[in-house]
């Protein structure tokens, strides 16, 4: 191994440069004028070892940084592991990263150099990603690897709220929305933390277009119907032939994401993938509400009425009719629900972390899928459907 990457969530990137200077104090250090590159040299009699640190910052290098962060989030999100608590906290940490330091050595990174890198990570509460896919904490312990293994019973997320949602500018409407949500949580007996940030404000939010929502709703319904059929009878080929007819009926061939298309094309889909796609009924339920096909979005205490959900699309009969009768709800209504589900999800995650029953009768699975759909509706982090982030 001659390279790795250190990731951190820091308000001042200078802290990383200072840490490099401190840890390699006895070696030659050359920094570029703009602070993007730091080269450390250890001169020997007959050789020269160099380690180069290349800094990438989210606010400065957003075009490259954000896709990289989404890919890493997706990479760890798909890992199956018995260390679910550790995984969820790692995903939360990843969602808040704003600095990446690519580290390249001209020779194999030995144990001494790795320990120096970990010391830098410790000074900035960073994590270190190895080419093997292993993610290490600042002590060098394995947080999670592609096989789902971990050396930790728990993982401490060291990210302040202003870094997690630093892109959000608090607004009067957003603060008022947050207060309404917390008042409702009080009435429902559901715990919350007051310092959980506001979500994006009305002034800066752009809701998905009617066509986007309609197409996504149809895709979610059809993928859930298909997955549900497989889960019930295991006849993949028969269900594939059935769903293809409906896809043609609604002209939905291009509505599916890459992940959904892969699932449709898989002759032997994994059970975990099938179950996950069945859960898309809950996302579809939210979009039916957003399109005006449901009067209200009820308390997320139980799964949706699948037969009612399917009947909405079936009764329309084709894409044009389903689209014509849809009326997208106002931005304020969608953001009200998005703020509320954000706080519901925090209660669910907090209960899971502390091994407690979720208070107030919330169904954590329903909450998570509604959170996914609502974040997609108001373009949270600009993510496409396959990469929607739902951190709390």
TrEMBL record:
It holds the Pfam family DUF4272. It comes from the Bacteria. InterPro entries: DUF4272. This is DUF4272 domain-containing protein. It comes from Brevibacillus choshinensis.
